[in-house]
Automatic annotation (TrEMBL):
<protein>
    <submittedName>
        <fullName>IclR family transcriptional regulator NdgR</fullName>
    </submittedName>
</protein>
<feature type="domain" description="IclR-ED">
    <location>
        <begin position="67"/>
        <end position="236"/>
    </location>
</feature>
<keyword id="KW-0804">Transcription</keyword>
<keyword id="KW-0238">DNA-binding</keyword>
<feature type="domain" description="HTH iclR-type">
    <location>
        <begin position="7"/>
        <end position="66"/>
    </location>
</feature>
<dbReference type="InterPro" id="IPR014757">
    <property type="entry name" value="Tscrpt_reg_IclR_C"/>
</dbReference>
<dbReference type="InterPro" id="IPR005471">
    <property type="entry name" value="Tscrpt_reg_IclR_N"/>
</dbReference>
<dbReference type="InterPro" id="IPR029016">
    <property type="entry name" value="GAF-like_dom_sf"/>
</dbReference>
<dbReference type="Pfam" id="PF09339">
    <property type="entry name" value="HTH_IclR"/>
</dbReference>
<dbReference type="InterPro" id="IPR050707">
    <property type="entry name" value="HTH_MetabolicPath_Reg"/>
</dbReference>
<keyword id="KW-0805">Transcription regulation</keyword>
<dbReference type="Pfam" id="PF01614">
    <property type="entry name" value="IclR_C"/>
</dbReference>
<dbReference type="InterPro" id="IPR036388">
    <property type="entry name" value="WH-like_DNA-bd_sf"/>
</dbReference>
<dbReference type="InterPro" id="IPR036390">
    <property type="entry name" value="WH_DNA-bd_sf"/>
</dbReference>
Length: 238
């Protein structure tokens, strides 16, 4: 099927964006994924970077840029945020802890939605916060189902191991205790998009004094249920 719009430069730019949907890519990887000539791929990627549609990660690889998220929010078409908002509030009320939604962006995970505990000691993660992919239960979720090469790259410098991620895949949830921040514990579960791909992580987090050093025993079931509700809602509205 011919997907050409008749506007060559636009079609080539879309090839670049489609390639980056799978994750960070070097120039050589962009060339391989798009079939474009190296100078063309570089020129388009740099032009898209100028407009913040493409960005770079800490290793200099091309990634999807913040402008895409801004446009999506402005258009009111971000289905994930729309369906997740009431579920996060329900999860907060059920567990008594702050609930968050994370997406991966390059070598970071970004908090894209949150429902904060109204009072008392809490773990506040402002919406828009960019946290490392090297620590925390949400990072484990966002990495655990990656392709083997990306998974192993993500483990470099991480505070968790390949064995940890194997356990996450087996049970379907992750927890961390003082991994991202001293005194804070969390539990996370995967949200899946089309084809079963993990597209986000839903989490609850709070002080270890309340969540204990085995937070999964307290909150794995409601967190997994919340993730499944969001996943099913995404399927219904797709």
């Amino acid at each position: 099927m011919d997907n050409s719009s008749g506007v060559g430069v636009l079609d080539k730019a879309v090839l670049v964006l489609n390639a980056l949907e799978a994750g960070p890519a070097s120039l050589a990887q962009l060339v391989q994924a798009t079939g474009l000539a190296r100078p063309t791929a570089h020129r388009l990627a740099v032009a898209l970077e100028h407009h913040r549609i493409v960005s770079r990660d800490t290793q200099g690889r091309f990634v999807l840029g913040p402008r895409l998220s801004e446009l999506s929010t402005a258009a009111g078409e971000d289905r994930l945020l729309a369906v997740a908002a009431p579920v996060l509030m329900q999860l907060r009320d059920l567990t008594g802890e702050s609930a968050q939604l994370y997406r991966r962006q390059g070598d970071e995970r970004v908090c894209v939605a949150a429902a904060e505990r109204a009072s008392g000691l809490r773990d506040t993660v402002p919406v828009g916060s960019a946290l490392p992919m090297a620590a925390g239960s949400a990072a484990q979720i966002l990495l655990a189902w990656e392709e083997p090469d990306r998974l192993h790259r993500g483990l470099r410098g991480a505070k968790f191991t390949a064995a940890t991620l194997a356990s996450v895949r087996r049970r379907g949830w992750a927890h961390s205790v003082g991994e991202r921040e001293q005194g804070v514990a969390s539990v996370s579960a995967p949200i899946r998009g089309s084809g079963g791909k993990v597209i986000a992580a839903v989490s609850v987090s709070g002080p270890i004094e309340r969540l204990t050093r085995a937070p999964g025993r307290l909150h794995a079931v409601p967190v997994m249920a919340a993730a499944e509700r969001i996943t099913e809602a995404m399927r219904r509205t797709s």
